[in-house]
Every structure is written in C-alpha cells, then in structure tokens.
Predict the structure.
Amino acid sequence: MFIRLSSRDARKGEGQVTTLRKFALLFSLFWLFGSAIVGWQVALETRQGWLGILVAALIGSAGLFATTVILLLRQMAMAASQRERLQELTQEWQATQHSLQQLLRQRDQLGLLVRLMQRFVSAAHQREILTVLLSELGLFFRAETAEGILFNEPILYGLWHWREGRVSVREGQTEEIRQNCPWADPDGFRNASPQEAVVPVISDGQVMAVLRLVRSIPFEPDDRQFLEVIAAQVSLALGRIKFIATLQTLSVTDALTGIANRRHWDGRLAEEIARAQRYRYPVAVLMVDIDHFKRVNDTHGHQVGDEVLRQVAERLRSTLRRTDFLARYGGEEFGIIAPQTALEAAKVLAERLRRAIAREPIQVNNELSIPLTISVGVAVFPDHAQNESDLVAAADAALYRAKQDGRNCVRVAEAPIA
C-alpha cells in the first residue's frame, strides 16, 4: 500500500517537473527572441552593432539566469516535499511494524493463556497448578527465576530456575516464608526493581498465592498487565480445585458429627481388607452403639440428641489412635476400623472407648449434663471373617450380644464354625 502511494506521488512529481521544464524552455525561447529584437533596435538607433549584441546578450543572460533560478527553487521545493513525504512513509512503516509486533505479542499471550487454561482444567491438585504455572511463565518471560507461594495448609513454595528447567515444590511454614521470601508479605507486595515482577493472586479479597519473576531486562507495563490477567485465571483454577475438594469432603463426611459417613466407611473398609489380605496382617472392626439413645431424644428433644451425637463422636475420635478410622455408621451407631490390630489389642481398644464415654456425663450446656454409656462389638479379620461384609456382620452380632447382656460392655464375635 505504501509502495503504491510512493510510486503515485513519484509519477505526479515527475509530471510536474516535465511541465515546468517545457514552460521554462518556451519562456527562454521567447525571452531570447525578445532580447534579440531589443539588441537589434539598439544597434539601429546607435548604429553600433557591438552595443546591440551586448545588450541582447545581457538581456538574454538575465532571462536565462532568472529561469534557472526559478527551476532551481522549484526543484528544491519538490525535494523538500519528497523528504517530508519520505518521513511520513517511514513513520507509517514504523507504526505498522509496531502494530505487527503487538499483534504477534498478543498471539503469544493468547496461546499461553489457552495452554494454561487447558492444564488448569485437567489439574487435580494445587501442587500441579503451581508446577505448570511456574514452568510456563519462566519460559514465556525468559526469566532467570520464577517463584510461587500458595497460602494453604500446608503452605506450598515452588521454584523454577532457567538452568535446571524444572520446578521444585516443597511445603513450608508461615514464619519460614516471611524470613526467606520478604517479597511475599501480604501486608504489601512491592517490586524491588524493574527487573522483578511480584503479582498476588486474590480471590474474594483474600490473597491465595503470590508469584514472583526475575529476569535481566526490565518488565514492561504490558508484561505486568498480562501477569495480572494470568493471576485472575490462577485464582479461578485454585477456587475450582478448592470447591471440588470441598465437594469431595462433603460427599464422604457426616454433616452432623464431622466424621466419615457410611459411604466413606464402606470404601475404606474394602481398601483395608484388600491390603490386609495382600500383606497378611489383622484388621479389627468395632461397632459402637449409644445405650438408650432414644430415651435422650424423647426426653430432651432432637437438638439435644444431635449435640450428644457430636460430643460422643468427638470423644471417640480423641480416644482413638491416629491409624484408626472412625465413621458414623447410622443413627446412634458408629464404626471403627483398626488396621494391624489383633484380637487382644482390639479388646483393649474397645474397653478404652467404653470407659471414655462412661467416665463423665455429656455436658450439653451449663444446665444439662447427660450420663451415657456405649456397647461395643468386636470382630477381627481373618479370625472371624474373610471379607468386609462378613466382618461387619460378625461385629454387629457381637454388638447385639452386648445389648442383650445388659449394655455398657464389650463383646467379641464368636469364631466361625469350621
């Protein structure tokens, strides 16, 4: 387009020059003819031929000089105009180059965003998002280092270095992060130099993460603006994973007591039995039932009954070992899985649970305390059953016998008949 414009202007200029030259030639001829006539008249009047020739020559030279000056001035004006036009074309070309570079930059930015969104959608954990993010940003911005901190429990710190070309992620503590990463101070994120970019990831007014990039050349305002766009996408990705984790937790958690529900219990028991079959170790199942719980509901109401269930669950959980698994099996009944626990150890555990509940009443509020007891049935794999369903049935039968024997006691499942 610019070449066509310049060619058209050149042809137009050449046409103007040709016309001016023709005009100057005709003017020169007429001027010379006129000077010859004047010189002839002077020669006739003075009767001196040399004087006429001199006058004719002077007048002719003056005309030719004037014509030459006019042509020269016109040429200078046209040259100046062409220089101005050339400057305009140069500026237009530079603007086009800049626009093209901007378009290419935006294309690369869009490509990075698409890649990140695709990886974020398939990510199942926050650690994976941090790893993908730092590696992509480090390469895209040609950074020397790319760091990131996720403020969750535990805190995750990730580092990408151009020499290694990979991301290392480790867990950290709040005090350690404050000491080693002053740029991640939530009270104020500052860029120490133009070669550093610190961008917080914010969701609902809360800082979820902080990103930091360092390179040898300064970050342009466009770079920092694009990093803010990426931070917004990271916020959405982290929120999605957090939401999915919350849904997963709710799907396997009892809403009233906060412990595992029956669905989680079934899956966990199947896993433990399969593992015990493979590695040949015992697994104990304890079925716990609150004695006379219906009387609590009938006497004090269901709200008090709910509070009793919550406190019993909490007391059981605080009494169990870290390796034991507690779930609400249904109603006022709880189930406990004790991996690598033989029969005698299971009986000791069950008795400890029974005493923990009977030791002191459940304090519902300042005015109401309710004494409670529990009955416990115990069964052990592989002594009493060879699969999870039979194991639960054996523990349930033992619990039924504990109820029949007066409650507030522990009973062990009967050995199967060979």
About this structure: The CA atoms of residues 13 and 78 lie 8 Å apart. The two ends are 97 Å apart (CA to CA). The chain has a mean pLDDT of 86. The first strand starts at residue 145 and ends at 150.
